[in-house]
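TASK: fixed-backbone design
INPUT:
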């Protein structure tokens, strides 16, 4: 699904040198290398504060911890997403309020938000799924009217651009009050292990987030909050600083690969290619098709027989997962997400795809529908 080895080989000398410099310095934690990466990413995003941390899940948890929430406060988030978004809400004793998603973008259905907002609603976590932004025009308007915080889950959208109504371009993760991202190896901006970051434009909020991520202390051994220990190590930061220079090119390569797929599948009635909204570009963290007429699982089997990997993101919506049965949702509560889970399949998508590889993949898909 992702060719990390060949991506590495193209920048091997830079990566190896960056890692060796960290080893030579013996500054592995909270080093100047980490500070430099945070500064580099801050400049790239156009946001004054980037606080690196251990992973994307930690980024979400730390962000919620910084909002002074109380047990039972409600956090709205989509039901069609990776577990971490809802997981951290539950771990903090907060109440997840799930919503369905837009059938075209797979992102949170902004039109459904108003119906689930109560006087206990404190935050909305829109997930910029698969590489394009949720409808932040509507989300920010609704949140502003209700004095509700927005925490963007931008783990799959690093470098994605959102277009405001005033013709301003904002990077995903910088639109709401807080942005969260992950540097997991398969992400568009990826390290060689786990890593994450929190993004904020608010000085005081950013200061609190940084403190919470560091055991709740600003001055060593003096603790202002109950915090956590969540750090990006220097070797990962060094790798990310190198890769950040290539991120726009990586995203461009993914868009080019997506265009190849789109053109290949445009005349197949049983395939719906990814939708691209007018208010956001798409950086294709995943290239996800919808397959009609109950053919998805057979297509997956066919691709496997041809040596082609594919993944179903996600096979079961969160409200039907055993872990969240206590929330009381039932099958049929979120029909769009339930249908999406039965029809989606993601094809290989990465920076190293060439036309020969994509030709083989697309021909194999087309051959299946010709049978």
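OUTPUT:
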């Amino acid at each position: 699904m992702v060719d990390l080895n060949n991506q590495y080989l193209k920048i091997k000398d830079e990566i190896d040198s960056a890692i060796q410099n960290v080893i030579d310095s013996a500054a592995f934690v909270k080093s100047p290398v980490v500070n430099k990466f945070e500064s580099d990413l801050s400049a790239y995003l156009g946001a004054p504060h980037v606080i690196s941390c251990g992973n994307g899940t930690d980024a979400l948890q730390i962000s919620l911890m910084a909002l002074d929430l109380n047990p039972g406060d409600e956090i709205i988030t989509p039901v069609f997403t990776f577990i971490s978004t809802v997981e951290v809400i539950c771990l903090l004793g907060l109440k997840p309020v799930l919503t369905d998603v837009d059938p075209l973008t797979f992102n949170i259905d902004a039109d459904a938000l108003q119906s689930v907002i109560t006087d206990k609603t404190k935050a909305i976590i829109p997930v910029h799924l698969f590489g394009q932004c949720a409808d932040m025009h509507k989300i920010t308007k609704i949140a502003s009217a209700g004095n509700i915080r927005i925490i963007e889950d931008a783990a799959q959208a690093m470098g994605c651009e959102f277009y405001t109504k005033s013709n301003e371009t904002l990077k995903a993760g910088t639109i709401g009050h807080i942005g969260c991202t992950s540097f997991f190896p398969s992400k568009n901006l990826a390290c060689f292990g786990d890593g994450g970051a929190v993004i904020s434009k608010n000085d005081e909020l950013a200061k609190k987030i940084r403190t919470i991520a560091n055991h709740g202390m600003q001055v060593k051994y003096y603790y202002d909050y109950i915090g956590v220990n969540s750090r990006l190590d220097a070797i990962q930061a060094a790798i990310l600083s190198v890769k950040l220079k290539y991120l726009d090119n990586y995203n461009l390569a993914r868009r080019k690969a997506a265009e190849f797929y789109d053109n290949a599948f445009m005349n197949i009635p049983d395939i719906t290619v990814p939708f691209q909204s007018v208010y956001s570009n798409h950086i294709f963290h995943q290239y996800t098709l919808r397959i009609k007429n109950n053919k998805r699982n057979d297509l997956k089997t066919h691709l496997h027989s041809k040596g082609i990997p594919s993944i179903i993101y996600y096979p079961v919506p969160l409200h039907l997962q055993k872990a969240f049965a206590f929330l009381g949702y039932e099958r049929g509560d979120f029909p769009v997400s339930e249908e999406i889970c039965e029809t989606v399949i993601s094809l290989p998508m990465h920076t190293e795809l060439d036309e020969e590889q994509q030709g083989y993949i697309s021909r194999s898909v087309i051959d299946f529908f010709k049978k």
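COMMENT: Residues 247-265 form the longest helix (19 residues).
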